[in-house]
Fold these 2 entries.
Entry 1:
Amino acid sequence: MKAIGLHKYLPIEHEESLLDIEIDKPVPSGKDLLVQVKAISINPVDTKVRAPKEKVEEKPKILGWDASGTVVETGEDCTDFKPGDDVFYAGSITRQGTYSEFHLVDERIVGKKPAALAHAEAAALPLTAITAYEGLFDRLEIDPADKERNRRKRILIIGGAGGVGSIAIQLAKWAGLSVIATASRPETKEWAEKLGADHIINHHQSLKAELETFQISEVEYIFCLNNTDQHWRGMSEIIKPQGKICSIVENREPLDLNLLKSKSVTFVWEFMFTRAMYQTADMQEQQILLNKISELIDQGILKTTINQTLSPINAENIKKAHQSLESGKTIGKIVLEHFTM
C-alpha cells in the first residue's frame, strides 16, 4: 500500500524529509480496526515529531494522526464498529500514523464520522476537537450542561484562530461561556469572530491592558494554546482568584507557580494522546466525545474548521502542509485527501 514515511529526521525543505513509499497492508487483531484512509489533516504535533534529530529509523516511520475513512476489517475483539462504517479519529502517538492508505487504530478512540460532512471536512476535526473538549470539560472542569451558570463566566482562549482554538471557541460558546479569543492579524480576527468569539484581543500586547479596553479585569478560565512561556506572567495577572488555567504547549523555561499561589489558581496540562498512550481505564471516553462532536456537527451546532485542502495525499503535498504550519500563520486546518487522483 502507499504511504509517506521517513528514515531520517530532517528540515522539511530536505528532499528526504518525507518520502513516498510502499509498505505492507497491516492486519487487525484484538480491538483494532483496519481503516481505509480517505482524508487526513496535519497538526503541529506532526511537525514536532518530524523535527530534525540524530535518530535514524531502520523501518520507515509513518507520521500523521488525524484521519477520516471507512472500516474494512476488524479485530476479533471489536464490538463497536463493522466493515463499511465511516469513522474519524486521531490515533495514538505511540503507533504508526495515518499517512498511509490503510491504518490500524484501537476502536476505543474512534468516533462515527459526522453524516453531514465529507471525509475531508471530517478529517479536520478529531485531534483538535479531542484536545479542545478534554481541555475545557475534563481539565478546566467546565460543565457544558450548566449553561445558566456558565453565562456568568468568561474564558480567554490564547491562539483562537489555530486548529484547537477554532473548535475551542465553538465548544465554549455551546457551553454558554463568554469567549475572549486572541488574534493578531485582520484575517485571524475575522476567523475567530465568525466562529463566535465575543471579544478579540492581541496576544502580542499586554493581556491585562488588552482586556481593560473591554472593561474586563479578570477571567475565570484561560485555555493557553500558544507559547506558555510568553504568556505565563500575563495569565497570572488576569486569572480570577480560584480560577483555572489549562495549557497544551510545553514550556521551555521553568514556570513560576508562586505567581498563582495567593489566588489559589489551578494549573493543568492537556495532552490528547494521554489516554491512548497509557491505555487508561477511561480510554473509551475519546470514542464517546468524538461521537458527541459528530452529533453536534450533524445538529449544526459546530462546524468543521477546514480552511485548505490539498490533493492527492503524497510527500510533496504533505511537505507543503508542514511548511505552512511551521510558518506559524496557519488559520484553521490543512487537510489532504485521495491517495490517487
Entry 2:
Amino acid sequence: MPRRAMASDTGFEMDQDLAKRLLVEGGTLVLLDVPRGTDFGIDLKSWNTGEDFKGVKMIPPGFHYVHYSAANEFGELAPRVGFIHNFKKSEFVVKRWDSQKEDISSEVVSEEVIERLKDNIKNLDRYLGPYPYDIWKQWKELINHIDDSVVQRCAPLCGFVRSALELENCDDASRPRGGESSQKRQRRSGLSIEEKEELLLPHLKPVPGTELRLTKLPEKHYPDGASPTEITQHSLDTSYTLETLLTQLKQPMELIAEMQLAFVCFLAGQSLDAFEHWKRLVSLICGADAAIPNRRSIYVEFLSTLEVQLRHVPEDVLCDIVASNNFVYHNLRKLFATIEMSSEVDGRLKSQAVRMRERLTSKFQWDFSDMQDEDDEDAPVVVTFE
C-alpha cells in the first residue's frame, strides 16, 4: 500500500499541543514528481515513497539533513544524495524531481508555483508526511554546534552532498611536479604489488563544486626551524597541528561544529569522505596533549559530542572500527591517560572523562584500566638522530 504519511515506525504518538504548535511553526518541504519507490528520508529516518508522496510537514525549526536515493525498475537504489537546510519557522520550501537526471533539480521553483501550492495547502496537506518527532531530540544533540556559517563554508558549492563523488580525470597540469614524482620513479622497483597497481590507476579528482569543503588539516605538523628532537615531539603531541588548524577558523568551537557536520554527512548522507575527515579530527584532538588545559572548552564539548555520536554509529561500521584496531578506543585511551595524569587539567574535566570512561566500558566493554602502561606494539616509535 502506498504511504502518504510518514508516521513514526516506533509507534511514537505526538502530544496534541505540540502537534498544533508544529502545524503553525513547523517548516514544510514540498517535493514534486518524486517517483514511487524512492528511498527518501530526513535526519535519522528514511522511507520508500508511495505514489501520493508530496513531501514532509511539521518540520521543527533548525538544521535538517534531507536525503534520498533513486530506485530503478528492479528496486535497486542509487548512491545516496542529500542536502542540509536550516528550516525557519513556518518556512515553505519547494523542490522538483528531475526525471532525466533521476535527482532533485537544482533549478529554483518559481514564486508562482510556490504561491499556488500555498493557496492549495489544505488539499496538499494529506499528501505530506509528518516529521518523525521521536528522533528530534537525538538529532538536536548531534547538530547543536552547527550554524549557518559552518554549513555555508563547508557544504559543496553545488548544494548537494553525494555519497559517491562525481570524479573526472586529473589532467597532467594538475598532477604533482618535481621531487615527488621523481622519488616515486626512483623507488618503483621497491614498491609492493598493491602500490604498483595503484600507480597504474587513472588520476581522478572530484568534479569541482561537488566535494565537501571541510577544513584541510595542515600537512606540516611542526614549525619552521624545528630541531630533530622537536620534530619527534610534535609527532607524538599534535598540539601544534591543532593550534594551526584553529587559526583557519573564525571561532575555536567551529572545530566541534565541523566534527558534527562531518559525522551527520556520514551518518545520514553515507559520505565516506566525511567519515574519513571525522576520524582525522578525532585522532587530532585526542593526540593534542599540551592543548588540553588551554583549550578546555573544546575538550568539554568534544567528549560530549563524541559520546553522543558513538550511540549512533551503525553496528556494521562499529565492527569495522573494532576490526581496524578500534581507532576510537585507542585515541580515547590516550586522551583519558593524558587527562588523568596532567596536573594542569581541572577537576571538572577529569570527572567528565572518568564518567565517560565508565559509560563506554559498560556499553562497549572497552577496557580503560592500566592506561599508563602501553603495550610495546602500541608505544610510539621515537626516532633518534645522530
